[in-house]
Design brief:
heterodimer, A: Rossmann fold, Dehydroquinate synthase-like, alpha domain, 14 helices, 49% helix, globular, B: 827 residues, alpha/beta, Luciferase, domain 3, Rossmann fold, Aldehyde Dehydrogenase, Chain A, domain 1, 4 domains, six-stranded mixed beta sheet, 25 helices, Alcohol_dehydrogenase_Fe (chain A)
Chain lengths: 378, 827
Amino acid sequence: MWEPQGMYSKFLLKQPTILFGDNAIMGLKTYATSRVSVIYGSGLDEDYKDKISNALSAFEISFVKKTWIGEPTLKTLHATIKKIEEFNPDLIIAVGGGSVIDGAKMVRTYYEFPFFNINETSFSMLNWKTTFVAIPTTIGSGAEISSASVMYNDSHRTKEFVVSHQFIPEIIVLDASLIVNAPKNMLLASMVDALSHAIEGYMSNIDNMLVDSYAEKAIQIISQFHQVISEGTSPENINKLQLASLFAGLVQNHCIVGATHALAHQMSAYGLSHSAAIAIFLPAVIRKNNNDQASKERFGQLAKHSGFNNGEDLLTFVEDFIAGVDLTKERKIVKENEQHILSDNDFFIQALDDKGGQGNPVPMDKGFLLEIFKEACS
Amino acid sequence: MKNSTMTDSLIGNNPYEIGSEQKEQLFSEALFEEIKFHYDNNEQYRNFCKNKDFNPHDFNGNLEQIPPIAVSVFKDLGKDLKSVPDNEVKLSLQSSATSGIPSTVVLDKITAKRQAKVMVKVVKDFIGAERKPFIIVDVTPNPENIRFLGARYAAIGGYLNFASEVNYALDIEAGDNVSFNIEKTKEFISSMDKNVPMVVFGFTYMLYAQVVKPLLDKGVKFELPKGSKIIHIGGWKKLENEKISKPQFNAAMSQLFSVEEEHVIDIYGFTEQMGLNYPDCECGWKHTPIYSEIIVRNPATREQVQDGEEGVLEFLSPIPHSYPGNVVLTDDMGIVNPEPCPYGRNGTRFKILGRLKKAEIRGCGDILGSKLKFSNDDLTLDISEKSNLELHFWKGEKLDQTLAAEAQLTELITKLNAKKQWLKDQPIDALIGLIGEASKVWLKAEGDLESMKEKGLAFLANWAKPIHLNRISTIGLRNNRQYIDGFLPLNESRKQFLKANQKGLVCHWLAGNVQVLGMFALLQAILTKNVNLLKISSKDGGVFANLLRTFEGVSYTTPGGYKIDGEDLLQTIAVVYFSSKDRDLGELMSKSANVRIAWGGREAVETVANYPAMYDTEDIIFGPKISFSAISKEVLGTERKAKKLARKVAVDSSVFDQTGCASPHNLYIERGGEVSPKEFCQFLAEGMVKASVQIPKGETSVEQISAIHSIRGLYDFKGEVWASDDTTWTVVYSEDSNLAAPVYSRVIMVHPVDHINETLQYIDDNMQTIGLASSGEKALKFAEEAVEKGVMRCPEMGRMLNFESPWDGIFLMERMVRWSTFGGPLI
């Protein structure tokens, strides 16, 4: 006869090595490697390539420009995999934004486990022999600490999340020099994304006390240093924001985020960037969730622990921060499509089904999301 | 026993006078009188009858329905098998044991008297009532020769009752050498009355060795009086290897002694029914006297066969009184002739056709008596015999068939070595992918592979899945399979790098018992990028070639587009067969090998080990090993748990029909659990039924069937037996805790113990696997002690036969590569 097994909870914190500071990249020198492949996106200049080469003690280094655009598919990954197979590296570096890092995760998987099958394989076998290094050139997305790799299945025309903590890179290099020159508005929007990871992760119905402090620290750092973006970026402070973004990403990765992400994911069809969409929905979602007493108390606790007097103060900070981001274009798009979206049942069904939004502290239904959407548009 | 029994009145009759109808009742009454006596007075026999559901007191069936006792029972229990009090035992009689373990029976006065009486009556009928001059072809039975004569001493004594004068024809010399004294014998013959027929008596093998062999060539001839006879006893066992048939022997004897051929009389008899002699009648057949009867049984089913069909012989006789030897199933094969005897003798006519062959040891259980020393003793004396080179699988360039076998093998090895570079260039992950493609075909087990399904193919298919090969090669190559593809940091050092290299040519000598095992080694040799030459066993039956054929037309492309073809891989593998007696071919193969892998029994691995090889050749010997299982009482907490465990034991005992080194033959169960060892046997029996459906049994040889019956027969006496109606499976319960010799063919011996640690005493380095069902510290302690004593693995039950790495204490892949470094050293 079957007997119920005792239930238990498990905290898991996959903690990569984080190299940061002025010469973060030089930290790679201490790692033993024979052959290194560097997968990079469009914006990597020759100087930085030299910098990477100088930082490595390998015999051979190959630079491979990613062959996919946007979300990778097996087809668009192929040419990169081919180059990696031929070069046979034991250390792979991905330098770029979320798309580069996510794609490189899949390249590494297919390189090390040619028989890997998204649908059939248990990921427990992903026992890496290569070392994977992520060097993010953007801030906020948390891709560098994410267990998920997003791949577009071209035959089924579906987006596939491949999730395993094994996908988290072994080493993350937070090099501020790659960020400093990014457009101010983009940086601000990215920080909203990071804020949303910390807030929605903290508020998630998946309670994980272990990462709570990461959320609190992330918000505290962002509230303390956000002005550096507007006031003129210093590498030192950018590095702090990179760390805050990493902490927030870590929170998101261990707790499932909520309604903000559920709605924002649907807006990519309308050409909105992820962080802009997040910025549009985040305050409305917080307010909506705060109608629930327990949620409100939890949000208040987050506010206090991250240096605010109360929840209201934190919400005001979030709203002020977002007000500093130029969302003119995005708000216009939303406004234009408001009526269409409100009458589009599928939009909300998909949002409710969105795997990345299942952690909302208050149970969601269509009406719930509809109200948020309306408020965000007003 | 009363003074006048039915047996006494039966043996008052002459042996061959009474017709069959009249005999039937007389014989049957006497026989049952004896059987009832044993049933009432012999607890072991009564126990046996109960096990067999037979009670002589309310039995009214036919003779063939009486459960026969196998001769193995007398070998094992003989001395203790008594139906009379100890003080009535006068003598215990042991067979001459020309082969194997002797049988023992205990005699009281009654039995001895009966034996003597029926012997005289039968022999008289053939050589006449008057005493005659005897030439006994043996040494004088004086006290100093007793040791040399052994069991022959008593037999000679018996025949002296028929002798008027005696000449002992053999002289004994120093060192127990004997010689035929021709002069003395000639003198004896000439001193006798020329009109009185004489008798030449001896043991068949003594006559052959001392008379036929030495004297025939010398042209010696003795002129015996007309009507003389030659009688010989003891059987042909020792002559089985000599190239002489009974007619040839008779012709030679008749020529030597000038005796008519039909007067050369072979007398059959056996210890378990001593006293009953079966001489050859002039009609060429033997007869059962009124004192005994014969039944011929099918060696496999043990059913009675039709007259005229061959089978194993069962003899029934009321003569044995002190021990229950009245219905005995022998190891002898024979045939019954229902036609009446033209010479007027009554009694069933039969012939002995030879001995049921002893089960050939097919498994790993013929463990080494002592550690191999790899000395060249005795093996170098083996005569090498020329053999052809049979190419069982080779996809490379054709060999010149007109060349001699050795030249062909040399050419083959050259061609294989030429493929080393191709293999070197293949990424290990591509090789894994390609084998993975083949594993999909193996999993389907269609066509030629279907018969392999239950012989480990399903396991091989799972084992060869990429995910598993990836794991195996990672573990096997110092935690990073990619060492075989290039230099990588050694132990995370930035200064020193490590690389694994192919060794070159791996030569495999495969065994016939578990062919799939050879595949595990071959695949690991491929993953370490070695070319392979495999010599299959004569029992292979095309199995290995069929497995390899899977690679034909199979290819694998990596996600990055690298394509590897099965056809190319096949050019790196050759499967050959040649006689293992061809030393030249064996040596050539051995000398060319960079790695030698030998599987099989003692002789097979010793042969390989004794071939010359390069000084740095890596030797991997998977020699014979045995295994058992042990269950501690803690894991027998509930009936449900016990049943589950029993199913697992049943699987272990059924896979490969127990021919694997890791197959358990003995199972030790602790007393004191919720389920007793005996109760466990019942569950195990149920498990064996299920396993026989799940894992259908392969063909069982007649010899094997006989061995199964023999062990069942023995334990019907000694313990308890649960068994299928046919010979599919057998569970034997024995209070004796000694490790029983393997019988194979799904025979599992269950022994109760008070603590599993009692079984530690049976462990030495011949022991490969112990299937262990225990828990906690007890399990750990047991495993620690067991491995220290020599056991290689203590896996879970139900998975004992699952090939794993390490195997037999070896990480196979690590032994098939050469490690090289670059940079460093660190100190």
